[in-house]
Amino acid sequence: MKDYQVFISYRRDGGADLAGRIADRLAARGYNVFFDLESMRSGKFNEQIYDAIDRCTDVLVILPPDSLDRCADPDDWVRLEISYALRKGKTVIPVMMRGFAFPKTLPQDIDALRTMQGVEASVSFFDSVLDRICDLMKSDPAPTEQAPAAKREKKKNKRVYLIAAAAVAALLAGALIFFMAKGGSGKKTYILNTNTMVFHKPDCPSAEQTLPKNKKTYSGTRASCIEKGYKPCSVCEP
Ligand SMILES: [Zn+2]
Questions:
Q1: What sections of the chain are H helices per DSSP?
Q2: In the sheet where 231-232 sits, what is the strand order?
Q3: Quick one: 6-136 is in which CATH superfamily?
Q4: What's the pLDDT score for residue 179?
Q5: How far is the CA of 235 from the centre of ligand 1 (A)?
Q6: Helix (H) or strand (E) holding 94
Q7: What is the model's pLDDT at position 185?
Q8: 73 Cβ partners below 8 Å, 6+ apart?
Q9: How far is ligand 1, taken at its centre, from the CA of residue 205, in Å?
Q10: Cα–Cα distance, 77 to 116 (Å, whole number)
């Protein structure tokens, strides 16, 4: 089993989209992100979640407006996750969406959340939100093609990023030309998750576990999935 660095706790209603975007972008920066929880959460609260939190250093809690109200319920799984992460001494980072405010009272086991350094997530400055999250996190990203250096050196390496980005763009353009020259239409079957706006290969385990009401089979190109606003799954990499 691979090790994770970052666990993202979110509610499916209101937080899933931002959680998914943050997960994708952190993964692109070289972090190992544990995110794809939808399947686990459709049944009873799963021990696997505790196991995943144990293996992470940082826990992001996505907070849409009023999202902590339901934490009054001792079985609410967002509460269980926050409480467990705090108890285990994880770096817990509240990511507060527009309109979110901490309630006057919180259950004792998660009350420390309000004292944690958090991030106000504004969609218009998404990159600075990500920078701030990366600064607060204890874990360092692994070097990747897109993120060749650890975060503490990221400013120095801005030029390297640009060169790498240009190289990737050139490669993609080359691949596209090659592909078009071969005359392939690239039409394939994908599974769309209309809730998280992620698309999967049909044999991806998380696609198989997507709730039927959120699941759409789509035949088309990868590019057309992205055009429709879907993000490729980071597990099956369609
Ligand atoms: Zn997938």
A1: 12-28, 38-42, 47-54, 77-87, 126-136, 158-182, 205-208, 222-227
A2: 215-220, 188-193, 198-200, 231-232
A3: Toll/interleukin-1 receptor homology (TIR) domain (3.40.50.10140)
A4: 56
A5: 5
A6: strand 91-97
A7: 60
A8: 79
A9: 7
A10: 19
Cβ–Cβ < 8 Å for 63, 96 = yes
Task: Measure 199 CA to ligand 1 centroid, in angstroms.
Answer: 7
Q: Point out the catalytic residue in the list 38, 81, 153, 227.
A: 81
Question: If you count DSSP H runs as helices and E runs as strands, how many of each does the chain have, helices first?
Answer: 8, 9
**pTM value?**
0.59
Q: So where are the chain's domains?
A: 6-136, 151-182, 188-232
What pLDDT is stored for residue 183 in this prediction? 43
- Residues of the chain scoring pLDDT < 70: 1-2, 36-46, 144-162, 174-185
Please choose, from the candidates 215, 228, 224, the residue with its C-alpha nearest in 3D space to the C-alpha of residue 187.
224
Q: What spacing in Å lies between the alpha carbon of 33 and ligand 1's midpoint?
A: 14
pLDDT tens, 92-117?
Answer: 999 999 999 999 999 999 999 999 99
Closest by CA position to 193, among listed 152, 228, 150: 228
Q: Is 81 a catalytic residue?
A: yes
pLDDT in the model for residue 89: 94
